[in-house]
Design goal:
This protein is an alpha+beta fold. The protein contains five helices and nine strands; from the N terminus they run H-E-E-E-E-E-E-E-E-E-H-H-H-H.
């Protein structure tokens, strides 16, 4: 084998290994409003739909409003700090090494009420590619200044599309708005608002 051919093979192998390495690198997104960060450690595509795994660092005061999911359970495993899980009838404080699994349709929210960051793993079972995309879109919209100060999308069609993708449902009086949100989600799908959001913010996911 000539030296040139040998060198060529080495270069091809090096770039091939680099490609594999890049594919294995985990995507991290950061919310510019709250400075929370999320790293996708396992995705639906990587686990054949078995599990979505996230490594989350949440700053003090951060956390979503009360909600529930119909299609998957959500397990929180605290690694550092203290995480508060608020349920319909009780509040749970999780410290490092502790966990709690939110069942399907169980109303909940999670937040950091301490003065320090909390680091935790979130396991979604079965995996939810829609949830993964919705998270990237929400953080992307916030980065582009297209959300309010609470991180809620300003455009109704974008809000509806994300709600549908993430399987995130509001309890209580907000249930009254569910039919309107469903209609808006249909309009978003017909007008391809959801596909445009995915193309803009999920291109590397």
């Amino acid at each position: 084998m000539s030296a040139k051919r040998c060198l060529y093979r080495l270069v091809v192998r090096a770039f091939s290994d680099l490609g594999i390495l890049v594919k294995k690198m985990k995507k991290t997104i950061i919310n510019p409003l709250f400075k929370d960060s999320v790293t996708f450690t396992q995705t639906a595509a990587e686990t054949n739909g078995r599990i979505t795994s996230l490594s989350v660092t949440q700053m003090p005061g951060g956390g979503p409003p009360m909600h529930y999911h119909r299609k998957f359970t959500e397990t929180f495993i605290v690694l550092e700090g203290r995480l508060t899980i608020v349920l319909k009838d009780r509040t749970i404080q999780l410290s490092a090494g502790e966990r709690y699994t939110v069942r399907k349709k169980e109303v909940h929210r999670f937040l950091n009420q301490s003065g320090l960051p909390v680091v935790f793993t979130t396991l979604i079972q079965p995996a939810s590619p829609g949830f993964e995309k919705a998270l990237c879109i929400l953080y992307g919209l916030a980065d582009d200044g297209r959300t309010d100060s609470n991180g809620i999308p300003r455009h109704p069609l974008e809000l509806a599309a994300i709600s549908r993708m993430s399987d995130m449902h509001q309890p209580g009086l907000k249930v009254i708005l569910a039919p309107v949100l469903s209609l808006l989600a249909c309009i978003a799908r017909i007008t391809k608002v959801d596909q445009k959001l995915i193309a803009r913010y999920c291109g590397n996911s």
